[in-house]
Amino acid sequence: YRLIRLSSPNLNYLIGLGAIVLYLNVIVLVIPTTNPEFAAVLCNFNPWLTSLGYSLCYGTILIKMIRVWLIFNKPLGLKATFLQDYAMVLFVLSLVVIDVVILGVYTLTEMVKGDLGVKLTPNREMPEEIIGPTAEIHENFLYECESKGRVVLYAVLFGYKGLLTVIALLLAFHTRKVKVKGLDDSKYIAASIYVTSIVLAVIIVSTYTLNDYVNAYPAVVGVGFLFGTTVILALVFTPRMVELYKDPEGDKIMIGMSSTLNRGSENEVIELRRRISELEKNLKQRSSSLISANSDTLPAECNGGDQRRYIEVESKLTRNDQPSSNGPHRNQKSRMFIQDTLTV
């Protein structure tokens, strides 16, 4: 299917993989445990899944927008080398490597300092409860991540990911007039960025305000991840599925562009047209000069149409004038035969 090939299916696999990672993050978030060691693993595993899933999803969206922008706004030299699937996949993987480096440095540093653990915190949602006929009062606690460098980690991660999101939004704005099916993702990407930004804002606020609530915090953050990830998948894949259903063979792909060329591209088109007209003019002059030069050597009996045919045959025989098994004078005999035929 041409429409599927145009939308870079290899990159869509990365978006699907990122969505799976974000869905796993929701599962990790709601796993109950009373073991402090296992609680510490789950607590510190959450930033890894969030960051890697976000990079896979939005890194792929960003490189797809860069591809569309380069197709309609940059010279052919950049497109030929940078727009291959392997180059775009390497770009997304480079973002994943950056996440691994940042999270790896953070994890090793906190392990050395001994701050990578959990602490007991009173459950504000249900601080105590009365149990049994003796009315025993039980205080409820929950495990909370204890890491002094977590604020710095979130600042670095959300800082550079926010920058990538802004770049993707700007590219979506600059490619909003693209009318090619399979490449007109600007409005869907802008909508997904808008929804995801709101969801991330809610998650960040909930992390520092609802962290002591054992039920409210997983509910708000989990629903936020589920909703944001599902919106990304719906906006990226649903329009393509609808278009594929309407046009399975891709015969109605409209390659219509309205005002997508920038000023530099317009100047390049004007310059190319000028050079083409000059080359056509030079070609006509050389053709007329060649005809006038060869007309002096033609037999006098040849009329105008025969002269032109003679010149064409003469040029063809000259290019093929090489010794053969029939003798070195084969082409000369052919010329004499053609001259006699034209004269008659």
From TrEMBL:
Record GO terms (molecular function): G protein-coupled GABA receptor activity
UniProt keyword annotations, A-Z: Coiled coil, G-protein coupled receptor, Glycoprotein, Membrane, Receptor, Transducer, Transmembrane, Transmembrane helix
Stated name of the protein: Gamma-aminobutyric acid type B receptor subunit 2
Spans annotated as Disordered: 318-344
One family name in Pfam for this protein: 7tm_3
Coiled-coil intervals: 262-289
Annotated source species: Geodia barretti
PROSITE patterns in the cross-refs: G_PROTEIN_RECEP_F3_4
A GO cellular-component term linked to this record: G protein-coupled receptor heterodimeric complex
Major place of residence: membrane
Glycoprotein keyword on record: yes
Compositionally biased tracts (Polar residues): 320-329
Membrane topology according to the record: Multi-pass membrane protein
Keyword Mitochondrion carried by entry: no
Domain G-protein coupled receptors family 3 profile: 43-249
Any GO BP annotation: gamma-aminobutyric acid signaling pathway
Localization (cell): Membrane
TM ranges: 12-31, 51-70, 82-106, 151-173, 188-210, 216-237
CDD domains: 7tmC_GABA-B-like
